[in-house]
Amino acid sequence: MNTQTTYLASKPHYEILDGLRGVAAMMVIVFHLFEAHSGGNHLIQLINHGYLAVDFFFMLSGFVIGYAYDDRWKKMTLGTFFKRRIIRLHPMVIMGSIIGAALFFFQSSPCYPAMHDVKVSTVLWVMLLGATLLPLPVNMDIRGWTEMHPLNGPAWSLYYEYIANILYGLFIRRFSKTMLSILVFLAACATLHLCLTAPSGDIVGGWSLTWEQQYVGFVRLTYPFFAGLLLSRFGKLIHIKRGAFWVCSLFIVVILIVPRIGGADAYWTNGLYEAFCIICLFPLIVSMGAGGNVTGKSARVCKFLGDLSYPIYITHYPLIYVYTAYVCNHHLSITDAIPYMVLTVIGAIVLAYACLKLYDEPVREWLKKRFLMKKKAL
């Protein structure tokens, strides 16, 4: 008897959406570099709204999850779905935690008030916990920024991504379009309320294990992710005949670099801008990206950016910790720090590409063969 091993094949990607994820990931790096010079004060920061890239990521994820899995549940078990998501996401979660631990002792700075006298054994313990993606309480923060993943801050968004996948797999995949629309409407109301009433005038937050921060994180997750899912189900895409990737990329870049709107006496104006971007503009961009076509050099750019987007997002922040410490220790202005900014960006790209080719792709391929393959008699 002959056997053949197969696993549920992936559908063709929306190449433009892959590319847009890469564009947004690069903007996150630029935002974090400039954040090192603002002391966390977004009222004065250049490249001001880069944090909205996370909300855009959530919407892309919801759209892609709906496209990839909504029509597969008759032949796919819940266990298979969770295995596929873990295989796709978790290897780089582990790598991000390892890189964060490896660079931790190169980050000594007054900017990190809790780093004094941290033991190697403590860092290793936090690294192991970080590799599980379990959120750490504030009293386990070894940096002093109240992060629930103190070796690799952006892992907080993967924590919520996992929650969204669990909710989708257990419950929301069964929602009708009407039920899902009601959920999305309520989530949009919560997003608007948070944006207009946030104490800092922006939707920033979600990375700390406190009730307030967890609420912010869940609000930031719920509308974009499930609006993306709803958009995939309705399939109402905007078709641009030429240059769809570049048009959408320009939209994303402009949205994320817009200066702070209003000051401390008019926080609501900035919140209104952010709510408009999340609720209205991001679905528009996803619709245009999914409805567009890309060929030639543009397709290769999308492929490269898409492949690099997740690795660079989940591994760049340990380098940002080092950069922030260097800026803080040497009191560098933005002008003085430009060479180090460029070096950090190059380092982030090289590190992410190395992780992708030498670790992530081989590990995921091995895991697929080990846990997703089925034997069929011929």
Please tag this protein with its features.
single chain; 378 residues; mainly alpha; 66% helix; disordered N terminus
Spatial separation of the terminal alpha carbons: 7 Å
Written as H for each helix and E for each strand, in order along the chain, the element string is EHHHHHHHHHHHHE
Poorly predicted segments: 1-6
- Given the structure, what is the number of helices? 12
Task: State the helicity in percent bands.
Answer: 55-70%
Mean pLDDT over all positions: 94
The assigned structural class equals mainly alpha
The order of strands across the largest sheet is 1-2
Strand content: under 5%
Overall geometry comes to: globular
What is the number of strand segments?
2
- Biggest sheet character: 2 strands, antiparallel
What is the rounded Rg?
21 Å
Number of domains: 1
Walk me through this protein's architecture.
The protein is mainly α and 378 residues long. It has one domain (3-377). It has twelve helices and two strands. It has helices at residues 15-35, 52-69, 78-103, 120-132, 155-170, 177-197, 211-234, 244-257, 267-291, 296-315, 317-330, 334-371; strands spanning 3-6, 374-377. It has a two-stranded antiparallel sheet with strand order 1-2. The longest helix has 38 residues, at 334-371. The chain is globular and about 55 Å long. The N and C termini lie close together (7 Å). Residues 1-6 have low confidence and may be disordered.
